[in-house]
Design a protein that fits this description.
The chain is mostly helical and 437 residues long. The protein contains 22 helices and no strands. The protein has one domain. The protein starts with 10 loop residues before the first helix and ends with a helix.
């Protein structure tokens, strides 16, 4: 095989994209087609392609790819993050955050406040869709008091959720971006926040000016809150930001949630075990997808597909800046095709790492670019899970375009990611790039 690789070796992934997109467009629903089944079909294509290659060699390439250290560690973190998110949710952490926040929020700043509340919950839970599902009913209730406020309220929640999902130490995208690039989450966080902090502040400021009519309507808070229930979230964030291993951090968070939930009698011991199991089960599909994608990429690599893709990208790249633009472009195009930012990063990650190392791009930068670009695309596409979740809670009373006109955060994130690439400092790239190999 030459260093140029083979275009035909990429057929299994191209097959997945075409089948998944065609089926989703035909059914008018990007989430009715099981992604796992689509990837299994793609794996079957990889196994039957190139019949002259022995099946045992293909199987060996599959197991080597699926059993990659980063893939297995990523799956373990996914499982722990799922357990922590579920047990903390079941012990009443979300309702405490929401009720506490809204009790002290003036109606004049409710849209901006929803943006911040959504950001905090998303950072805590590590899931944008879960955050949107939890907070969107507030937007619906607000629209009953203030006409024409539903679209901007939902947009503020979606934007905040994408901000939190982008920075959370237990977010699927953060885990995937960090592990595929082989860097620590603390380092990725430091690079990432430089991109998204200004879009967040600008968005918050803009939302402050959309509340004139809302000041007439009081906010009714239903339910009580206990600030102690928020402690596991704060503990996980504090431990992660100080550099404690994420597996140890999540384990501490799970046990802390169990203790607090037991103290407040939110669940019995068997209910606590069931809650942890439910959280683990919520990550089973994603974990299997990671294994299968890793295996498919292993076969594609053996057949020269990765070499071909790298050759096509790298022959057009002659600088670190162009390498980063290539990573951003690949991430955006894949995300547009499959409407899933986590899977996008898992697919693009290994390629992005090789591009980054070849052109001495800091792996913290490549991880951040993948994460922010995927959040930008995922946050604005009408067929994304985030937009669909918000519209579903609102009984589809608003259209994606109505929400999109107020979705400032994802759009600004895309712009600031490009600014980060074009104008960001790259001091010390060579030393760090060599160190991370």
């Amino acid at each position: 095989m030459s260093e140029k690789g083979k275009l035909s070796a990429l057929f299994p992934l191209l097959f997945f994209v075409v089948v998944y997109m065609a089926s989703s467009i035909y059914l008018n629903d990007f989430y009715s087609v099981p992604v796992l089944v689509a990837f299994l079909l793609s794996l079957l294509v990889a196994f039957v392609q190139y019949p002259t290659i022995k099946f045992k060699n293909k199987l060996a390439a599959f197991t080597a790819g699926a059993g990659n250290d980063n893939i297995l560690i990523m799956i373990l973190i996914f499982l722990l993050a799922g357990a922590f998110g579920q047990i903390s949710r079941d012990m009443g952490a979300i309702s405490s955050i929401v009720n506490f926040s809204l009790q002290y929020v003036s109606p004049q700043i409710i849209i901006a406040a929803l943006f911040l509340i959504s950001a905090f919950i998303s950072i805590s839970l590590g899931t944008s869709v879960g955050t949107i599902a939890a907070l969107s009913p507030i937007a619906v209730g607000l629209s009953e008091q203030v006409p024409d406020s539903l679209a901007i309220a939902l947009a503020s929640i979606i934007g905040g959720a994408m901000f939190g999902d982008n920075l959370s130490f237990i977010s699927d995208t953060t885990i995937a971006a960090s592990r595929t690039q082989g860097i620590g989450m603390k380092e990725k966080f430091k690079a990432n926040i430089k991109i998204v902090i200004l879009p967040m502040l600008i968005t918050f400021t803009i939302y402050l000016f959309f509340n004139q009519e809302l000041s007439r309507s009081p906010i009714e808070v239903v339910g009580e809150y206990d600030l102690v229930k928020i402690v596991p979230y704060l503990m996980v964030f504090a431990l992660a930001i100080t550099g404690v291993n994420v597996i140890a951090t999540l384990t501490i968070g799970i046990f802390l949630s169990l203790i607090i939930g037991g103290y407040f009698q939110e669940f019995s011991w068997i209910e606590a075990v069931q809650s942890v199991n439910q959280g683990l089960a919520g990550m089973y599909e994603l974990s299997l997808i990671c294994l299968i994608i890793g295996g498919i990429v292993g076969i594609i690599r053996m057949n020269g597909g990765i070499d071909y893709l790298l050759y096509q990208v790298l022959k057009r790249v002659d600088s670190a800046k162009k390498a980063e633009l290539g990573i951003a472009f690949l991430t955006g195009m894949v995300n547009l095709s499959i409407a899933n930012n986590t899977i996008t990063i898992i697919i693009v990650g290994p390629i992005a790492k090789e591009i980054a190392l070849t052109h001495q791009v800091k792996l913290t930068r490549s991880a951040s670019i993948m994460d922010t670009m995927s959040c930008f695309v995922q946050g604005i596409i009408p067929y994304g899970a985030q937009m669909l979740a918000a519209m579903a809670v609102a009984s589809f009373a608003v259209s994606p375009l109505e929400i999109l006109q107020y979705l400032y955060y994802p759009l600004l994130t895309g712009l600031f990611t490009l600014a980060f690439i074009f104008f960001g400092k790259r001091k010390g790239v060579e030393a760090q790039g060599a160190e991370m190999v």
